Amino acid sequence: MIQTKQVNLFELLSEVEKGLIVIPDFQRDFIWSLKQIEELLNSIVNGYFIGSILMLESPLDNLRFAPRLIHGVREDQIDRRGCTTIKYILDGQQRITSLYYAFYEPDVPLSDDTDLVYKFYLRADNLEILGLVDPKYIARRLKIRKELIEHLIKFYKTQYGVDIMDLPTMKIFSSKETFEKYIKNNPNLKNAYVEKLREIFDKIQGYTVPVITLPPETSDEDIVNTFERINRAGTPLNIFELAIARYYPIGINLNQLKAEVKNKSFLEVLDEIAILKVMAIIKNMEPKSQNLLKIVDTQSNPAQVCAQFNKLWDIAVRYLDEALNRVRNYYGAAKVKIGKRERDLIPYTSIIIPLAVLLYEIEKRGGQARLYSIVDLWYWYNVFLQTYTHAVDSKSFADVRYMREYFNNPNIKLNFISEFVENLEYVKNEMLKASQTSGLAKGFFNQLILNNPLDLLTGQPITLTECQIDHIFPSSKFGKSADNIFNLTILDKSTNQKKKDKAPSEFLYECLKSHGNDISNLMKTLETHFIDFKALEYLKQDNLDGFIQARADRFIGMLKEKFETS
User: Fold this and answer.
1) How many Å apart are CA 320 and CA 337, to the nearest integer?
2) Can you tell me whether residue 161 is helix, strand or coil?
3) What is the mean pLDDT of the chain?
4) What is the b/e burial string over 132-151, where b = at least 16 CB atoms within 10 angstroms of the residue's CB?
5) In the 8-state DSSP scheme, what is residue 544?
6) Coil, strand or helix: which one is 234?
7) Distance of CA 112 to CAs 30, 71, 437, 466, Å?
């Protein structure tokens, strides 16, 4: 049964220090700013409502999730003697962590984003809270002289108009003992000021927080749904974090699995959710969010379920790496410079997920060459028809199911091949309109790379790590029209510098001269850039529009031949 009750603030913080109130391991780290903490403390001092705290109770001998101590709590402070349960904070981590840090003053940096220890000072005259770096911490850390500490204190006085050494920190309000000790150690305090502090002490000590506690028997589904709705910090939990919560009770530690694969190359372009998606598709499940939480049956034998999950995880990781490697090295998706910026030439990173599953399915069937060839056509079909720009989860699932049917029965006709040929005019028109950073442009550059382009000036192979993608007709002379995909090509860096803003006809003359004034030799180089005799004539005339159309026709003709001869 769900319980809702008002709980004294320091009862809560006492349980935090004893390790009886924790956060689930998948929750994000503490991220609040100083200003947010100051505003929260100001609300406490003034008796304002700070919102409710949502918790989940769990038996200590059957933890629902991996527990993590609140930031600042030390392991040696944990005291769970006589307790049979702990509570996870589902909503309120940032607030509880802020309050613990301010009132208990653990000697640790405020967050992972800083290595400085802060304290929160109270100006009782106007109830203002000041979050400042602790001067004593600076003294310990830098071992600086007393006069330099005094200099820092003077700086604070200039900034805030008060000597912070005369101000109490929030810690004095944490207990009767600490409060009275502060009063005793400061005998020069005026009576009126002491009374003001006592008034504030009584208000803080009497402050209560509404706590909603979900019982241990709360279902996984209800807990996951609760996590999905929580968005206090402005960043909702993603599906991988929800999966961590879902699978932990059966012994699957996704955080540990994630740490073990953090250096895998596919994580340069995808996140860890891709692993779960591959696992789901392998199990013939559409990789939508709710299915990623049901990859294995959490009600079955835990040992068997963990073994099954870990095996699937390893398969997904392996084939995601293989898929990225294929896209990089077999489909031409390298990293090159466009202008002064390095660009990744993968047309659609989302296509790596179904590709990984297809590579797994092929290897299961003995790695047949004809299956790899069909997957290659499937890849280019999707790149140039731009099918992985939306609804990619449904598309991935449908594509794998479609290809599996063919893998199992090669007599099935693959309609996508003829469909692609029929739509080549559409592809050309889309490419003529596309931006130079689009998936279509990247697909075009990939095909250029696969065509082993020779340097236009020297006729030598281009080193991809030293190349650039730039205009053939310079934009400085031909304006925005020069940004068309079919006016771009891969150039050696030094050649690109020599070409600069020269008219195509002028540069072409230099290229011909460099090729021994042999037009046939030059054409061998130009053909590696999908430039035929027709396009060459437009280069001679400095005719940009004619060149673009001619090169587009040559490229589309190459794609048609590739699919018709399959």
Assistant:
1) 25
2) coil
3) 89
4) bbbbeebeeeeeeeeeebee
5) H
6) coil
7) 8, 10, 36, 38
- Of residues 359, 518, 383, the one with CA closest to residue 438: 383
Scanning the structure block, which residue is given the tokens 């179904």?
Answer: 354
- Which stretches within 232-301 are classed as H helix? 239-247, 254-260, 273-282, 289-292
Are the C-beta atoms of residues 292 and 243 closer than 8 Å to each other?
Answer: yes
- Strand-pair category, 53-59 with 208-214: parallel
Rounded Cα gap, residues 344 and 486, in angstroms: 19
Q: Which residue in 536, 559, 555, 561 sits closest to 546, CA to CA?
A: 536
Q: Which residue has the tokens 């705290």?
A: 53
Q: How far apart are the first and last CA of the chain?
A: 65
pLDDT at 531: 97
Give the model's pLDDT for residue 234: 46
Look at the block and give the residue holding tokens 């009584």: 202
Which of 110, 125, 210, 212 has its CA nearest to residue 161? 125
Please classify residue 410 by burial: count the beta carbons closer than 10 Å to its beta carbon, then call 0-12 exposed, 13-18 middle and 19+ buried: exposed
The amino acid occupying position 4 is T
CA distance 113 to 452: 46
335-338/467-471 β-pairing = parallel
State the chain's maximal CA–CA distance in angstroms: 102
527-558 b/e with 16+ CB inside 10 Å = b?
bbbbbbeebbebbeebbbeebbbbbbbbbbee
Phi-psi region for residue 127, left (φ > 0), alpha (ψ -120 to 50) or beta?
Answer: left
The CA-atom distances, in angstroms, between 411 and each of 28, 66, 407, 417 are 51, 51, 9, 14
List the chain residues with pLDDT less than 50.
231-235
| Distances in whole angstroms, Cα of residue 229 to Cα of each of 32, 247, 399, 413 | 20, 19, 32, 46
CB burial string 112-131: b at 16+ within 10 A, e below: eeeeebbbbbbbeeeebbbb
Q: What is the pLDDT of residue 232?
A: 45
Distance between CA atoms of residues 539 and 473, nearest Å: 9
Q: What is the dihedral of CA 365, 368, 370, 376, to 10 degrees?
A: 80
CA distances for 386 relative to 62, 198, 205, 375, angstroms: 49, 69, 62, 16
Q: What is the pTM of this model?
A: 0.72
State the pLDDT at residue 63. Answer: 85
Rounded Cα–Cα distance for residues 479 and 465 (Å): 28
Residue with tokens 């929160």: 120
21/25 Cα distance (integer angstroms): 13
pLDDT at 398: 94
Helix (H) or strand (E) run with residue 21 in it: strand 21-24
Task: Please tell me the distance from the alpha carbon of residue 123 to that of residue 520, in angstroms, as a whole number.
Answer: 86
User: Six-digit token pair at 185?
Assistant: 């150690």
What local confidence, expressed as pLDDT, does residue 230 receive? 58
Helix (H, G, I), strand (E, B) or coil at 132: strand
